[in-house]
Structures are given as structure tokens and as C-alpha cells.
Amino acid sequence: MSDLSRHTQKIWQQDKDHNIHPWTDFSTFKESGSMILSDSDNVSVSDSEGNTFLDGIAGLWCVNIGYAREEMAQAIADQITKIPYFSSFGHHTTEPAAALAAKIAELAPGNLNHVFFGCGGSVANDTAVRIIHFYFNQLGKPNKKKLISRVDGYHGSTYMAMSLTGVAFDHDGFDIDREMVHHIACPNPYRRPEGMSVEDFCDAKVQELEDKILELGPDNVAAFFAEPIMGAGGVIVPPEGYHKRTLDVCHKYGLLYVSDEVVTAFGRLGHMFASEAEFGIVPDIITCAKGLTSGYLPLGATVLSDDIYEVISVPQSDGALFTHGFTYSGHPVCCAAGLKNIEIMERENLCDQVMDVGAYFEAQVRGLGDLEIVGNVRGRKFMMCIENVADKKTKELINADASVGNRIADHCQARGLIVRPLAHMNVLSPPLTLTRENVDFLVQTLRQSIEATTADLRADGYL
Ligand SMILES: Cc1ncc(COP(=O)(O)O)c(C=O)c1O
After folding, report:
1. Mutate which of 122, 150, 227, 235 for ligand 1 pocket (most atoms within 8 A of beta carbon)
2. Cα of 2 to ligand 1 centre, how many Å?
3. What is the mean pLDDT of residues 80-84?
4. Residue 30 in contact with residue 405, Cβ under 8 Å?
5. Which fold has domain 71-187+217-347?
6. Is the full-model pTM beyond 0.90?
7. Is 414 helix (H, G, I), strand (E, B) or coil?
8. Which residues lie closer than 8 Å to 152 by C-beta, 6 or more apart?
9. I need a surface site. Which of 4, 17, 113, 272 has the fewest CB within 10 A?
10. What is 11-65+349-459's CATH number, 1.10.10.10, 3.30.365.10, 1.20.58.220, 3.90.1150.10?
11. Residue 1 has pLDDT above 60, yes or no
12. What average pLDDT score do residues 289-318 get?
């Protein structure tokens, strides 16, 4: 065994024995352990044995500016040697926290001018819930507590964010708060009832929100949480007008509308924020994370409107505090990374690049729709999904035991490409620095991998 392999073997064993991985199938993990990623460059990552892969998923929808940027390393190091940490509780702040909050306020739509920092997307959504409840308490409406979100929505993995999440598979064996959170159906046009127009389907989904609010009682419902495009639920783009109409319904009944832009903010669809630029809505709250630092350091933000801030920034009683926050809220090094990330995105016009190369990517990926098992290709720009089916006409799924998403991802990996399996689907969310040549490699490799998987499925009797 070479020294390199011996080292790999040691890390692999340590990891398998002691590192509890998120979102892991332990039945296979206990056998196969994990691939060790040890190097990266722009759109590629390499394993500990030196094999290189094009990263078709930007880590986890997050490495938007690409990997291993020297100037990002420098910005982080500079901040560490100036002041690596101080709490932002009460009347202390640091320069990066102040500057990044101001920058996010400048980029966010409408009057969303106030930023609360946490460590990631789940915490940003939990923060939104705590602040929404506090807001209604302040307004003398303490019964407004219930939250509505959608089947197949994904909002994170803390208790509250997972309760908001509507992916049934993610709840299996765990508990969620079913008292506070209520789910309405997913507005997935591909899975609409046979014979129904997309317009009628949209009407029905909007009506469903209104019906749910009336069923729970408008005086009891505080907010509606929605991703502009549902990511982990399978990149669901709702019908035209859905977001605008659901926002109107929320405001008609005094609910706050929370747009979970953890995936869609910072360039993935070609805009710093997608809510207004892509979908024409100005929500009451936007949550974001991931692309905020391109994943270089953990950071999330809950961005609030002036109207909400005016209410929550008045002490609830004499001497009372706004008792919400974390040791790492406004962490100066993470905020410095956020500032550098946005600076790079602006200087390199990455949003314009997504409008150009992302549009090419979308068109090329859509071209895979001619393959035998590809039932639906959906998404926008650098946020795409391929849904595989047994029968394109009836949309019947391939037997779940076949793990078709995993098989395609494995074939891709063997050919030097990482794509994400999601049950019978595969998700694509590459770094925004992808070139047209990278797109061609990615799509050709995916085509070969889906064809190889189709042959395997036939050989194994699944087709
Ligand atoms: C839309 C959305 N919201 C929230 C989250 C949770 O973010 P985090 O994993 O940073 O807590 C995710 C993570 O994938 C997400 O996709």
C-alpha cells in the first residue's frame, strides 16, 4: 500500500468510526464510509487519491464564486489578525458586520433594510419564526402563532426549520411540531392532475392557501414560508403568478410572507435576490445563507422590512431586551468573507455571467429530455433538476429500490462529475463560474450516465 493510500485509509477509518454525517444512509455508510475531498480549484474538487471531479452541485448549492480563491483566503486571514471575534450582543459591533448588513440592505428589495446574522439557513428561518412571534406579541396579537409552508419545501434541519420543511421522507422516524406548522400542497406543475391546465392548477394552489388560512383562522396564523424555487424538494418552479398571488393572499389576512432564499440568493438565478427580480414580489422577510459567503465560512441572514423593525425595536416593557441572538451573530470573520464574496461577484459580473452561461446550461440540460427515462427537466439557470420515470406518458416512477438517482450519480462520478441524487431525481447547481466548455462536459457526461443507468435498469428488470 502506498503512503498516500495508507493516509487515506486512516482518515477514512477515523471518519467512519467517529464522524456522524448529516443526511446519511447508515446502512451503506457503515460499509463504504466516505470519499475524502482534499483539494479544489474553481469548479473542480479532488479526492485524497488525486482524482478530480467537476463539481455539478457547488458543494451544496453554495460555492457560487468557485473554489480556492486566494483573495478570499487573504480577506479571511486579514480579519483574523485584526480582530477574529467579538460578540455583537448589545452595544458592540465590528466593521465587517456593520458593512455587510448595510450591503445586504442595499441589495435586498423594497424596504428590507435590517439584517439579523446567524450561522446558516436553518438558523435564519428559526430566527424569522422567533421574530415573527415577537412582532405579533408586540402588536397585541399573541394568538397569531401558526405557520404555513408547503409539501416538498425545505427550510432546514433545526427543530423549527424541519417542522417547516414539507418533505415527508425527511420526517421519517423524527418528530416535528405539527401544532404550529401546517403544510399545503406543492405547486409542482409536472405533477398536476391529468387534464388540468397550468392556469387552473395555479388557481387551485392559491385557493388552497386561502382555504388553509380560513380553516386555521386568520387571527391564529402568523406567516407563510416559501422558497422562490423549491430546491431540495426537487427544484420546483411554481406556475407563473403563484408567488405574487400567494403574497396577496397573505397580506389580505394579515400574514407575513417569508421568502426562503437560502439557495436562490447571491446569483444562482442571475440576481443577488430572486424574489423581486425573478418573481416580482417584495416579501416581508428574506432568509439567506449559502451563497452569502459562497460556503467559505458559515453565515446566514434574516432580512426584515422597516415595518417589522419598527415594531420589534421598541422594548416590550421597561428595561426589557430583544432576547434573541447567538454567540456567533455577526461574526466578524464570516462577515468579512461575505463582503469579499459580494465584492468578487460584483467585480466579475457573476450575475450577468449566470444570465449568459446559465441560460446556455439550462438549454443544454433541457436537451436531455429526449432520453428514455427522463420524464421532466426543470429549473432555471444554475438551478436544475432531472426527474427520472419508468413511463414518460403516465409519469409512473421507477421502483424506489432501483435507487435511480444514486445510480446516475455513481455513473457520473466514475466519469469525473459530481451530481446530487435526490430519490429518483438528480439535481444540478454548479458554481457560477462554470464556462461553456464545462457545461458541455457536464451535460455530455450526464447523458452518458443516464444512458448507462437505463441499460443497468433494464438488465436488472426495473424497466
Ligand atoms: C431553501 C433552504 N432553506 C434552508 C436551508 C438550511 O440551511 P442550512 O443547512 O445552512 O441550515 C437549506 C439548506 O439546504 C435550503 O436549501
Report:
1. 122
2. 39
3. 98
4. no
5. Aspartate Aminotransferase; domain 2 (3.40.640)
6. yes
7. helix
8. 166, 167, 186, 188, 230, 233, 234, 236
9. 17
10. 3.90.1150.10
11. no
12. 98
